[in-house]
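User: My instructor asked us to take a sequence, write out its structure as tokens, and then describe one feature of it. I'm not sure where to start. Here is the sequence I was given:
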Amino acid sequence: MSPLISILIATKGRRDELERLLDGLRQLDSRESIGHEVIVANNAADESIANAVEELVKRHAESEPERWVHAREPIPGKSRALNRAIHLARGEILGFLDDDVEVTPSWLRAIDEFFRRYSFDVMQGSILIPPAMIDNPGFLKLLNRYRTICFYQKPGMEVREIDSVNAANIAVRRELFSRTGLFDERIGPGQSGTSMDVEFGERVLKVGGHIGYEPRSVVYHNVDWSRLTEHYFRLRHEMQGRSRLIYKQSTLLTILPNFLRAMWAFGWYSLLNNERKKYRAKGRYFHYRAMIQAKMNAARSKIMA
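Assistant: Let's start with the prediction itself. The structure tokens for your sequence are:
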């Protein structure tokens, strides 16, 4: 018999995207034979938007009240919202989806088969470019430059062990959280901005956990064009730097050499007109600059205290 799967979705109130995701969850293969529940952790900052999200979940719950759960978490933070949902979840397997993805019909069946067939603690699924965008040259050019929408796919269809996670499409054995602890509420969207899944993946490996890639668990990530800009590129890498500083506790002795290397690499690859390597170095420059600024602000606050 398949274990109950709890599907956890934290949303900041992107109602249209959430509606498409929830509609897709009603179209899953084997949804009648695989026990599951859907918990929407409503982290919208605006109460009118929060109310709209609640009404959306209630609409689904009208015909399946035992399957759909709405959980309001007004304090900002994706990690906090997901931790609230974990406490409410009844499943042995916890599936996590971002609110801006769309599932394929076999998504739930792939998770069920993965955990019955393999001993991995975490499943990382595929996060693909929407079919309508796969051959769009303007989109592909910007994506290759900025890499600020996190698609995830490895070649081939075999399950394999990997060493990181992207929480837009993962599933976790519930018992793992007793070893790792829950998501770090200091980081991630709504707090430091990002990296809650990166940090969690590192803790999984630290406690001896194993992460498996399941290519058949597929979602499509919606394309937000505002993420494919110079402005968002800088913001994202700054958020990564501040987030890393929180959980890594790096010192200036390690930050400064990396900052200087990034500056040098950016200049060098600019001269060579190598766009991909130039933007990689530029991102690292913003990353380490944000860490230095955060360190300086913390020191200034201590002096003023």
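For the description part of your assignment, you could build on this observation: The chain is about 45% helix and 20% strand. Try explaining in your own words what that tells you about the chain.
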